[in-house]
């Protein structure tokens, strides 16, 4: 990023539309979505279910292709998955037959990193997420939070410049989630990457982000973008501050009171027709 | 699921938080160790009880058998069977028969699984292979292997070949289906996780699909061994000169009930032993699985 022009985005989603065939009908998961994300930016995407946020992530990961439009990473169109884009899944997706260390080394093996270096790098990232006491444990012996930390270490180990996180803490209890959010930010501030973080939790979206992208459903589209000052220290004080409450309010309204959606909600509440 | 199930983690669901989440950078010093030893102790206690119940049940079964035999049913008494077993072991008949039967079963079973595993993988991985092979497998699955015997005798003569072929078929059909199921049910997320970590098809196959379907393959092998063993006696109908099944059919001609019992018990014990060995291998190879 030394000599690049200032406005070159790390990730650039340009007019991406994705439709799926559902029987005879077509379902529009994403409708003309455009987002630019700068290098080292931490962007959260929040929205109701069915807004296509996971589809957006899969397209950037290279696991799905857009029906129209382009997804660019470093100015080049995404074609298939690659180790420069780390993905963290909600279901952890650890290989259950491998230990924590072997899981973290998996990506290093596939990219042909020699053994001693593999070992050292795995060690480093296992320490970074605080799992050194469990390096030789199998995933089944770990708690959900520990599993997700292992998955984060595994994604970090291959040294991706981008981390795509699909509701990584969605399956965890509230206490663990808060801890992992803080730990993720700690890890991220020590070792900055560009992060696209998908969530359905408004608090999480506000707490982590430099920018919150709110999406709307049916069809999936960008509804609102809310900036959060990156200079703010993300700690408990911020979480309990009036600024946080104000931001949370804004995002909350944007998520839960989208035009057209409020009407649909009250409609379904009044009675159960058909 | 029993009331004893403390963890209550159904398959596919992440288990509940077993340990409190350690604060960042400092995992709790108690670790999983303490909880684990307690659980192991509890489990070994339960196992002791189960074993005692098993032994009691076997003893009761023999007692009932003895009672029925002495009540005038057409059954040999346990001592008669034991003494016949002694004679048959003493003159080497039982050993030779068991060896002949085991050789047949293990040959058929080994060939069956050796073919079934690659075929199952190909069917699970490539839609084309599946489309081509599946109708045949589904069709032959509905035919009991024993029904193939007449055809096998006509086509292959009366030496070892048709016997082993029938056993092969039984083992193959059981194992191929579950290998195929194993490959098909590999978690897509794991495949995606490997792909985003830079793995190509071959690596995904060797390092994700194979280990993930190992539990299915091992279950298939156990079922396959069961069907192979079950097919044995009938396969030995085909002009055998020795073997446990042959010995029993021979004994039938002479109304020799104790020998038939010795044969039955030998088949049961050997079958059980082989199954236990496979079960042990399964436990070992799939230790990573979350069990109830």
Your description of this structure?
The complex is a heterodimer of chains A (274) and B (292). By secondary structure, chain A is α/β, with parallel strands linked by helices. Chain A is built from nine helices and ten strands. Chain A has two domains: 8-84 and 162-268, Rossmann fold (3-Layer(aba) Sandwich), CATH 3.40.50; 87-159, no CATH class. In chain A, helix 2 runs parallel beside helix 4, helix 3 crosses helix 4 and helix 6 crosses helix 8 (242-256). Chain A starts with 10 loop residues before the first strand and ends with a helix. In chain B, helix 3 (93-125) runs parallel beside helix 6 and helix 6 (160-184) runs antiparallel to helix 8. Chain B has 292 residues and is mostly helical. Chain B has helices at 33-70, 78-90, 93-125, 127-142, 149-156, 160-184, 188-196, 201-235, 244-253, 257-285. Chain B has ten helices and no strands. Chain B folds into two domains: 31-72; 78-285, Orthogonal Bundle (MetI-like fold). Residues 1-32 of chain B have low confidence and may be disordered. The interface between A and B is large, with 48 and 38 residues.
Describe the largest sheet of chain A.
Answer: 6 strands, mixed
Distance between the termini of chain A: 57 Å
The CATH superfamily title of the largest domain in chain A: P-loop containing nucleotide triphosphate hydrolases
Helical proportion of chain B? over 70%
Number of H/I helices of chain A = 9
Give the strand tally of chain A. Answer: 10
Count of spatially separate domains of chain A: 2
| First-last Cα distance of chain B | 8 Å
Question: Using DSSP, what is the number of strands of chain B?
Answer: 0
Q: Can you list the strand order of the major beta sheet of chain A?
A: 6-7-8-3-9-10
CATH class of the largest domain in chain A: Alpha Beta
Cα radius of gyration of chain B in angstroms = 24 Å
Q: Uncertain segments of chain A of ≥5 residues (pLDDT<50)? A: 1-6, 261-274
CATH topology of the largest domain in chain A: Rossmann fold
What is the approximate shape of chain B? flat
Structural class of chain A: alpha/beta
- Residue share in helix of chain A: 25-40%
Tell me the overall shape of chain A: globular
Total helix count of chain B?
10
Oligomer state equals heterodimer
CATH superfamily of the largest domain in chain B: MetI-like
